[in-house]
Amino acid sequence: MITASPTNRLANRLATICQTFFRPTLFVLIIVQLVSCGSDADRTDKPANTAEVDDLFPVKSSIDYAQGFSLTYHDTYKLIQIYSPFETSSDTATYVLLPRGQAKPPGYTDGQIIEIPIQRLVTMSSMHLGLLGFLQAEDILIGMGDLKYVSSPKILNRIKEEKIVAVGRDQMLNEELLVAMHPGLIMAMGSPVSKIGQYHGLREAGIPVMVNSEWLETSPLARAEWVKLMAALLNKEAEVNTRFGAVAKEYHRLSALAKGPIDRPSVLCGLHSRDTWYVPDGDSYMYQYIRDAGGSYHWAHIKATGSLPLSFEQVYPVGLKADFWINVGSGNIENRSDLLAKDGRYADFKAFQRDRVYAFTKRVNDRGANDYWESGAVNPQVILADLIKILHPEVLPDHELFYYKPIQ
Fold first, then answer.
1. CA distance 267 to 255
2. Do residues 131 and 231 lie in contact, with contact meaning Cβ atoms separated by under 8 Å?
3. From residue 120, how far is each of 64, 127, 147, 319, 343 by CA, in Å?
4. Which of 119, 248, 264, 383 is the most buried (most CB within 10 A)?
5. Torsion of CA 267, 271, 277, 279, to 10 degrees
6. In what order do the strands lie in the sheet with 92-99?
7. Where are the domains of the chain?
8. 126 neighbors 374 (Cβ within 8 angstroms)
């Protein structure tokens, strides 16, 4: 047997009264009102404002390797936070990426607002050109700190057409020109030398400045993943997810192949210059390349931030035994004679004697720009393939060196 609720019993009694004393129409109104209201226990109250905000970003990117920034999504805006952008600072820089026409979200009083997708960009580093090229977005670039060191054919063509102008850098930054250009964003290079304070006037003029400090990342894939930051600025998450996913997959495939060889030849990096030999430390992305390519490295156990400054005498014993010697200069070393002109003691190195000396200068153009620092930054799988070809040519017999070349 079903027991009627207190609300239903009250409705039945009122129905009887209404049939006796009121017109049928009034009776119907009372019953409808009673049933629609019910008791507090029989209904679920909804807030007065029931409007639901649509998610403006159905396609999202996740940050899986990079440690220097985070990307989070909210219904009407994206949030980027860049950690310790100048290495020695513990501050976090916050950027609110807001679609045009959307109201600014509450809070974030210290965060810079960037309207997306950005349509006019000024960059301060050639590495940023690699990010644009990866996403085929070169057309948004209108200014650079310096126009000299450019490898991208598309960017060079835009410079030739005077669609990109030099804006200066550091103490020579042309603020008046930048204010007149009014870019949607200035992407600065994060370094202790390039302080964010120098852009204070531009921020006051309503021009957002974003610090890109990818160079502080300690792995090749982490450095390359900063392309997702650029994609978030351009609303190109779908494209970057597909393309970067393919890069990461290929990098891991190649790394797994290089784990097969039993021998792990020793590798020496860099060149002595101005009384100092800077070598990668064990926390550097360059060491990660060597390790993933199947090589061993003398300073792998030293964990630090940045390169290790050593004397020639400290490196010399390692050079005598190293099987391979890579990264010997940035374009001014073309042959063995050039090396010996720098220091005759290089002739004592095992790698020199066995013609195992390499530089990442195969793609240096006549302007002195090195594509290793542009497209190479977002294609670590190609650099890794080069290094595997150098250290273990039998693993990739069909690969042709792309960024590296032998010094003969």
1. 17
2. no
3. 28, 17, 17, 48, 47
4. 383
5. -30
6. 69-73, 78-83, 92-99, 112-116
7. 69-247, 259-406
8. yes
Question: Encoding tokens for residue 209?
Answer: 């400045």
Per DSSP, which regions of 63-208 are E strands? 69-73, 78-83, 92-99, 112-116, 121-123, 141-144, 165-166, 185-189
Give the C-alpha separation, 167 to 209, whole Å.
Answer: 14
Tokens describing residue 314: 């400290």
What is the chain's pLDDT, residue by residue, as a tens digit (408 residues)?
Answer: 444 444 444 444 444 434 443 344 433 333 334 334 443 434 434 344 434 567 899 999 999 999 999 999 999 999 999 987 555 555 788 999 999 999 999 989 888 999 999 999 999 988 899 999 999 999 999 999 999 999 999 999 999 999 999 999 877 889 999 999 999 999 998 654 455 667 888 888 999 999 888 888 999 999 999 999 999 999 999 999 999 999 999 999 999 999 977 799 999 999 999 899 999 999 999 999 999 999 999 999 999 867 899 999 999 999 999 999 999 987 689 999 999 999 999 999 999 999 999 999 999 999 999 999 999 999 999 999 999 999 999 999 999 999 999 999
Dig out the tokens for 201 from the structure. Answer: 């006037």
Fold of 259-406: Rossmann fold (3.40.50)
DSSP SS3 for 276: strand
- Decide whether 69-247 matches 259-406 in CATH topology: yes
Q: Which residues on adjacent β-strands are paired with residue 276? A: 273
